[in-house]
Fold:
Amino acid sequence: MISLLPGLRTIISSIFKSAKLMMEVLLLMLFVLLVITLFGIQIFKGVLKHKCVRNLDPDVNVTYEQWRSFVQNKSNWLVQDDIDINVCGNASSTGRCPANYTCLSDVGLNPNSGFTSYDHFGWGFVTSFQLLTLDRWENCYNLILRSSGLYYVFFFTVIVMFASYYVVNLVLAVVASSYEKEFKRKEKVKKEQDEILELRRRKEKMKKKNTLNPKERFRQYGRQMTRGFSMESVLTWATELSHYSADDEEQTEKNPTFLESLKTRLNEKLCSWTCCAPYLKMQEVLKKIMTHSFCEGCIIFCIFLNTILLAIDYYKAPYSNILNQGNTILTAIFAIEAFLKILAFNLLPYLNNGWNAFDFIIVLLSFVDWGLTAANFKSFDISVIRSFRMLRVFKLAKSWKTLNVLITVIFASLKEMGNLTVIVVIVIYIFAVIGMQLVGKDYLNKAAFPDNQVPRWNFLSFYKSFLMVFRVICGEWVEPLYDCMRCSRIYFCIPLFFATYIIGNFLVLNLFLALLLNFFSGDTLTAKESNNSPPLSTHIKRLLTVIKLKKFSKHHSAKIQPNETVEGSNVKLSQLLQLQSGTSPNAKSQEEQNTSTGITCVDQNPKAQVASVPSQNEIPTVSAHCRRYENGSAVIVPETLEEAHIEPEIEIVHSAIGKGPINTGKKSPENAKQEHNVTQEQGNQKQEKEDTRKMKPCCPSICSKMCSCFSSSTDAAAGQIFNSLRSMVYKLVNNTIFDGIVLFVILVSTVTLALDDKYTHNNAKIQEILQYLDYFYTAFFNLEMLLKLIGLGAIDYFTNIWTLLDFLLVNGWLSLLSNNIKAFSSLRSLRTLRALRPLRAISRWEGMRLVVNALIRSIPSISNVMLVCLVFWLIFGIVGVQIYGGKFYQCVDRNGQRLSVDIVNNITDCQAYSDKGFKWVNTEINFDNIMSAYLALLQVSTFEGWMEIMASAADARGIDLQPQTDANMYSLLYFVAFIIVGTFFTLNLFIGVIIDNFNTVHKKSRKEGALVMLLTEDQRYLYDALKRLSKVKPIKQIPPPTNIFFLFFYKVVNHRYFEPATIILIVSNMLFMTSDHYEQTEAYSNVQNVINILFTALFSIEAVLKILGLRLYYFTQAWNIFDILVIITSIIGNLLDSVATQIGFSPTMLRVLRLARLGRLLRLVRSLKGIRRLIFTLIISIPALFNIGILLFLVMFIYSILGMNLFRDLPRNGSINEIVNFETFANSMLLLFRLTTAAGWNDVLQQLLVSNVQPNIVCILFMSSYILISFIVIVNMYVAVILENFNQAQEQEMAGVTDDDIDMFYEVWSKYDPFATQFILYEQLSDFLDDLKPPMRIPKPNAVKLAALNLPVTNGNKLHCLDILRAMCCVIVGNVKETDPLKELQGKIVDRMKKRFPIRNTMQTVTTTLMIRKEVKAAMTIQKAFRRWRKRQRLKMANMRAEKKSVHSVHSSSTSSSSSRPSSPDDVSL
Structure:
């Protein structure tokens, strides 16, 4: 099935391609779980078995066996409602037992039937995974704080902020990155295939036609011919060609098919009616009426009115009949609108418009609703069909731009969303079937469950299994796992639920957010809103354009001037035609839009083919030919040495960067607009810096005219005195000491606000002191306000958001009002907003300022999307009111337990038994009205309390009927639909907007961020690579000792097997630590202590060997210092462990010392490359995460003061106890930290509503606003930073140069430069590049490739490390076109490098490797020529000598012959 659907193949392939990264993330998750589990075993072993046991009577004497049986009897324990067993502790800040109870250890089982504990590694691992996934983690949070102490909140803080949010969202980052890569690859392949098909179609078309039509002739010869014609002749010819229809070109290509002929006939029948003239005139009048803006406004008003009428309906509303009549009237209006539009536009054009067809379907459903109502079908619930009226809200997208944009995004991602939904269904089906087969029958064992009843969520049938798996995928896996382990085997349950959660939640559900992040960009809303201006402004702009054109035509002609060329311009033929006809491109696009709405019947489908001409101005360089790899190494394919020559001075600055001329032609509108925005932002920043140095006028100009003393240029004595005084005050308020004093007073005032809790509120002395302090703060802040008003001036003071906030919240009347009037005492907590004022004082703290500015700039987009999400939820809320309104009522007994249907069937039976204490009550969360429905849907979307809501919905039988278990099980599909649409899609869309907008604004706000936004992908890769080069320098290599004894140990610690042996030792120690458990035997404890001492001795021996081999250099490495500290702490812990009982050492401190053993596990990070890279992503994210954490702390601080003032008198009942409350500042912060993850907020809200301490609307606003700000906004800013930094790490790998590659470069460099002089000899360069690892390696022979790098060579024939590394990075990145933003950024990088490597500036460049290669080649050529010349000279000399010798021999022979001639024949014969 997956292979048949291309969309499914894309998603599945993205999952498989992310397998490597996913395995690294899962390995990191396993490592984190191991650390958390071992930490929990050392600290929380056995503490969850502490329970409050009733005291025996003092006069009773019992044996030990009787005492143990009394203690283990559950009836003698203190039991609470929110948790099954009330744990306790005897240390400070723990949960204490009430009177007549004592906290005892080792009593009964652990909480949750013994499944929640850190008594041994198995249950500890499950509990740690529960904390990591934040599923019902508040239960474990409350239990551990009660049993161990409040200060262990730091343990949970680290887990939530760095383990849960970071590690879990790394899965999202991996899935999003893989999906984005796969989607881009798919789009690229599809585009290439479309281009190939288009070329084939054109080729076949040209083969069929032998003659060219006028348009094709114009395309081929137009440019050459326009050089000799005026603009008027060109426009005239183009106008004549415009009458040539594109349909005429293809009418002879093929015969129409059956479907096309059928469509033509329908067009003739339904679209070309032949009617009388009066009817046609009436149709024209109807067109004008129906398309008029007033008519559209009336329809929009009716839509709003219909929405309001549907929203204000509720259970037993007294005006229900009036609402039904109003809905009937509105339905009739919409039906009349549809009928009139059909008459005006004809049927087929009307239905061609999607909005009209959508509205027509709603009208038909309304008629069906009327018919069913008249027929009075009691067995059919017509409220479902009636709810479809709410879909008319989407018609507002025609005028609501944000809704239009988001609907566009929805429809763009609808296909992929459907594919993803299919995958979700497949995953649910697979695991549902597996669950039924493995553990389905085990749920029939009722005795295994506490109430002897089969739980509602089980695997007994496919439908229930489907819902169970869906619940686990949504994140609720802990409680179903507990039920499964109660009735089935543990080795079936744990793998089943873990695999379901990891595959379903981590992979599949994260794809929803990844898909939306891929389809939605941060500038989408801004772009769409700017392109679609309101109608009134559009008309005004058009009018101004016409006026400008008329003025322009007076002074300019339409002819082409000699300095103008049509060929080099970007003016298209369509623009020329529009210029001639007097219409603008925007007007034409508006006409095309009106045509597409179905006003006319003509099918206009113009086809414009724009051919892209490749640029001929790019000059390839060495780096343009370097993107080839052989065996994983970079291979340079240079041009000839003469072509690759670059001036050395230029090469020093721009080494191996592709040189290209700057485009002097016209820029595209998008690029021009983007550059204009960047220039404007830079100008604004400079202007702000200049404005801060100048003192602005005190008052507006109108005040200066009325009173001359306010004028800065007055010559009056009073004016001069005022200006001098104002100048002094201006210097005072801009002084850093003044800001420091104000900041100190703000911090002290916030501390005093935190002291005003429940217990100090009744203390008269403390309240008196706090009151006098309030008077001081009021006077101080009013004085500060007055000084700033004088110094900064009224204009500057009231136009600054921070000073305006001070004015609104720090005025003296607010403090006096809150102190003197008790009804307004809670307003005093609003003064804590002054805690935001330090943001101005720390404005020089760049990171915090960027976070706050990015959040503020993202508010408009976030608000728009939030409104759209509320519209979606409004639809589901109205549907919920129609389906479940009044159906959640039930009859309960005196104990609050619901009665069976056999006892009470309806409200009448319940009221009949009122004397027995039966009550007909409603649930706290219901769907009786739209506000209650919103609250219920918020709980469902956050997956907190949604089980209770779904249980009430599944049991509902009808209005005034007693609920019955699973009486309406299939109604739960409503919640499944809402979770898919309202949570997985809509809420994730909201989260996606937050993440993407925050990242976009954050990038633009950062230093150099505006310029980086203008870079292309390759330019950004190069910029990031070059930027990282200035952060690392060569390190000195540890020299080997000269002493033979120390040299032996040096070789041992540097042996290739030494580090693996150490890793094996660490892993063995870790596995041994997992064997620690609660209630282990004394013999096992002794063996464990001996083995622990043995491991400590082995690690100590390792440290001694390293100290002997590395000498004092051992302490120059951070990891070695960490190792020695762990060893020392372990030795101290072992010594104290053996004598702790004798000296009375604190067991808590002993446990803390034992935690030092866990530090050895961190050494694995150094050896595991994948984990090290992911942790590096966390390290580079820490500054931004720290800033967001401070912002979250400010929000928690404000809400804690609010909660402490509003709910300090909240009674302790249910989930509110001595730790979970708002009585003190510390308890409020503990509770709000838990609520930051939305954990159990529904239980707290329910207690707030029941207590009646504050009005219900105050309780709902307090809780919902905090969940929205902290859980949905700030936490997702946290996620945005993680995604951004992870994408940066991925871009390093895509660019080809990572931090590991740079570390590898300097590691190899240290072998050739052991003393870190930053230089190596030219003779070492060839061997050095051959020793590097891919992708920087250039294997031998590499002489020509070294020359092509054109590296600068300094005095002494040396090369600098930065020059080599920069050249290699440019080679790996490839050909990059140089632009102005890149030049400016490179200039900043060069300045940074000069500061980082000052010694490089002192060295003079004397030559380059290319020049050396040329010199060598020239020398070899000269040498070869000289040798040839010498050879020729030698041959010549040899020839001359031979010639002389031959001449001499001839001469000597002739001489001898003449002297020895014989005188007689006898002599000759001799």
Remarks:
- The two ends are 117 Å apart (CA to CA).
